[in-house]
Amino acid sequence: MRVAFVMWPAAAHLYPFVPLAWALKAAGHEVCVVSHASIAETTASMGLTPVSWCDPNSMPVPMGPGRPYPEERADLARITDAMAFGPDDPDREHWDVFTQFYLPSMWDFIPFKGDPGEPMPAMDGLVEFTRTWKPDLVLWDPCVPGAAVAARVCGVAQARWWTAPDVFCRSIDRFAEVTGRPGAPAVENPLVETVRPMADRYGVEVDTELLFGQWTVNPQPPAVGPAVSARTMPVRWIPHSSQEVMPDWVYPVPARPRVAVSLGLSERQFMAGGWNHIPALLEALSTLDVEVVATLNKTQLEAVSTIPDNVRVVEFVPLNHLIPTCSLLIHHGGMGTAMPAVANCVPQIVLDFVGHEISATGSGGRMGRSRYSLGPALSRYVTETGAGLVMNVSKPNAQEMREQIQRVLTEPSFQEGAARVHNDLLATPSPAEFVPILERMVTQYRQQESTSH
Questions:
Q1: What are 148-162's pLDDT values in tens digits?
Q2: SS3 string of the chain?
Q3: Where exactly does CATH 3.40.50.2000 map onto the chain?
Q4: Nearest Cα residue to 351 out of 317, 321, 374
Q5: Residues 94, 230 contacting (CB under 8 angstroms)
Q6: In whole angstroms, what is the distance from residue 18 CA to residue 241 CA?
Q7: How many Cβ atoms from other residues are within 10 Å of residue 422's Cβ?
Q8: pTM: predicted TM-score of the whole model, two decimal places
Q9: What percent of the chain has pLDDT over 70?
Q10: Phi and psi (nearest 5°) for 438?
Q11: Mean pLDDT, to the nearest integer, of 218-247?
């Protein structure tokens, strides 16, 4: 069986599926990763075959919501008004993440409400590669929905691969509910209008299967939510990141508790500003009898005058190296950051700008600071399972931060909660156990295709 992974070109999108790709290869299947050339070297370092969907000179490095898109965002604001969300409507959070962050990520490849005749070099290259390589299955990142179009054009089984709350499907489920009511406003489905230009270009009908895959593979814990109509199949998240030599200082583990602080690669790559809480956090940690490892870069440390003696700053260290040695992880709410803690029974504190709206404003390839898009979902998951606390950094207070950190380090209930979420993780099939499931799904697709023809 040949399997093509199609992904938005960012390390945070690459790392989570590497263990499944390896499991497929170990079972004798061929695997390649199709994306922009900017991620090819990183992909190759994972032991996987990168394929660039077009000449990099014909398409700049994707920036998604880092681009302004003023006309498109004005259209989305009009559609959002028509949705008439209430002040405490939980779907407003999902909708904002979907429309402000993820939809613009798709527009790098397919113009929103565009003309089918407009240039789409990446998607044309993807169709051509799919026709030539003839995969049996395309596993695609929802930020590249054109992969589903390419799969259908070539008669290939296709499924979404996603590693976070499925705000894509939940938002469109809610859109269907609102627009299906009597007297509902006549507004465009923003996901349909994003996919339609490429679908029309290749004579493909836009339907639910095209938007959400024939099925969805999602390794996030189901409790993170939200509930969606898409057919979802769980697989165990195996923490994985860049392959690095393990630093000498990681072992032996210190006698006093080790605390990891990690605010995410995507945060510092795509977000502009928003690091004013870091000095207070380091001050809070400085008076505790702990060893701190903080994965922060110069930009994130600009407001810090002095690094405390008990804090080791490293720009990057693979969390699957570091977290097994830690008693606590403090992080921004990213799924790829949280899951190593889940896998190793480590309690967490999620930093969140509580009270801030989730919003994105693009300029020069970077996003204006807002509440982190996945922060609220991860905050709920951590607190509702008893695996940790949420730290409100909207108004940083070192004393309050210190008290929260001390609680999570000393109260047994947080360790018990971390053990519960770890057991939930073990209840899902490992990548090796999931490979036969994919094989059966592809066989089922072939049988359906042969029957229909």
A1: 999 999 999 999 999
A2: CEEEEECCCCHHHHHHHHHHHHHHHHCCCEEEEEECHHHHHHHHHCCCEEEECCCHHHCCCCCHHHCCCHHHHHHHHHHHHHHCCCCCCHHHHHHHHHHHHHHHHHCCCCCCCCCCCCCCHHHHHHHHHHHHHCCCEEEECCCCCHHHHHHHHCCCEEEEECCCCCHHHHHHHHHHHHHCCCCCCCCCCHHHHHHHHHHHHCCCCCCHHHHHCCCEEECCCHHHCCCCCCCEEECCCCCCCCCCCCCHHHCCCCCCCEEEEECCHHHHHHEECCCCCHHHHHHHHHCCCCEEEEECCCCCCCCCCCCCCCEEECCCCCHHHHHHHCCEEEECCCHHHHHHHHHCCCCEEEEECCCCCCCCCEECCEEECCCCCCHHHHHHHHHHCCCEEEEECCCCCHHHHHHHHHHHHHCHHHHHHHHHHHHHHHCCCCHHHHHHHHHHHHHHHHHHHHHHC
A3: 2-236+428-452, 248-426
A4: 374
A5: no
A6: 9
A7: 16
A8: 0.92
A9: 94
A10: -60, -40
A11: 93
- Cα 187 to Cα 2, 91, 115, 176: the distances in Å are 40, 18, 19, 11
- Strand 348-352 relative to strand 388-392, pairing: parallel
pLDDT at 270: 61
Q: Which residue carries 């929260």 as its tokens?
A: 404
CA–CA dist 379, 386 (Å, integer): 11
Cα(36)–Cα(152) distance, rounded to whole angstroms?
Answer: 21
| b/e code 339-358 from CB counts within 10 Å (16+ = b) | bbbbbbbbbbbbbbbeebeb
User: In this structure, which amino acid lies at residue 394?
Assistant: S
Q: Give the homologous superfamily in CATH for domain 2-236+428-452.
A: Glycogen Phosphorylase B; (3.40.50.2000)
53-68 confidence digits (pLDDT tens) = 999 888 888 888 888 8
User: CATH number of 248-426: 2.30.30.100, 3.40.50.2000, 3.40.50.970, 3.40.50.720?
Assistant: 3.40.50.2000
| Closest among 303, 194, 162, 317 to 249, alpha carbons compared | 317
Percent share of the chain, pLDDT over 90: 80
